[in-house]
Design brief:
Elements lengths: L1 H8 L16 H11 L10 H11 L7 H9 L27 E5 L4 E6 L2 E4 L4 E6 L3 E3 L5 E3 L2 E7 L5 H15 L4 E11 L2 E11 L6 E10 L5 E9 L3 H13 L2 E2 L3
Antiparallel strand pairs: 1-2, 2-12, 3-4, 4-7, 5-6, 7-11, 8-9, 9-10, 10-11
Length: 255
């Protein structure tokens, strides 16, 4: 890091490091210090780190300082957080799920059938399917949806229950109001043994309560395939059968 700073800012370094000038041997001193360090029982294989890394890689870029400053001028930053939609006050109206279904490829190993009036958003490790008017994207690339499903794959250990709990903890870190409703239930996910957990949350778009169904199953390489169904609490009953049909009819080809 210090070699890069010196290469870009000159031997004296950039102005913002003027209160910490380079004594001339900083790199050598840090190298000696690193060589002298001794770590007892080093952790060399951390599945939790891999899962967090995979989830971060699938996220959109964060807002830049310039974008946040602009939104502050516009009154769009609340409690230090830049909203995706309209600060949790957006009124959302969407069409009911179509009875006709359309099939999409969600990555190389998964095909998913969703109501024909839903559209696909994203094409990386995480894909969202939502009706028109239910998907929101912020200036900094952040996104949210009020109705629909998200399909993704994250790192796993081969233990379905443990990996599902790890994913739940990861979701809770970015959704402080997320609460689990009851115990996880065994379920059919793409013809495989899976789990479904019902969660409650408050939508960052509408500010209203929403119901989330998180379903998971293992892939052959121990990765965790997940399906997240989201609907407002007032519409949850209408969407329950749709979410069940989507997760049960996933086509998984991970051979």
């Amino acid at each position: 890091m210090f070699k890069t700073i010196e290469a870009e800012g000159g031997a004296s370094g950039p102005e913002w490091l003027s209160d910490h000038p380079n004594p001339g041997n900083r790199y050598a001193a840090i190298t000696r210090e690193a060589q002298a360090l001794r770590v007892s029982n080093p952790l060399r294989d951390n599945g939790e780190f891999d899962r967090v890394k995979s989830r971060l890689n699938g996220m959109p870029p964060a807002y830049t300082a310039q974008q946040i400053a602009q939104m502050q001028k516009q009154g769009r930053v609340q409690n230090g957080r830049a909203p995706v939609g309209t600060g949790g006050q957006q009124t959302v109206r969407v069409s009911a799920p179509s009875r006709e279904y359309r099939t999409y490829s969600a990555g190389n190993a998964v095909r998913v059938s969703v109501p024909a009036n839903w559209q696909q958003y994203g094409s990386n490790s995480t894909v969202t399917y939502a009706p028109e008017g239910a998907f929101f994207e912020g200036q900094g690339g952040g996104s949210a949806f009020t109705h629909g499903v998200e399909v993704g794959v994250t790192q796993g250990t081969g233990n379905l229950q443990r990996d599902t709990q790890s994913l739940l903890r990861s979701l809770a870190q970015t959704n402080p109001e997320l609460q689990q409703q009851g115990n996880a239930q065994r379920d059919n996910v793409g013809g495989r043994s899976g789990m479904t957990v019902v969660l409650r949350n408050r939508s960052e778009v509408t500010g209203q309560p929403e119901v989330i169904q998180l379903s998971t199953t293992q892939l052959r390489d121990n990765s965790l395939l997940y399906v997240v169904g989201v609907a407002p609490q007032t519409d949850a009953n209408e969407y329950n059968s749709t979410f069940a049909r989507i997760r049960q009819n996933l086509q998984i080809n991970d051979r």
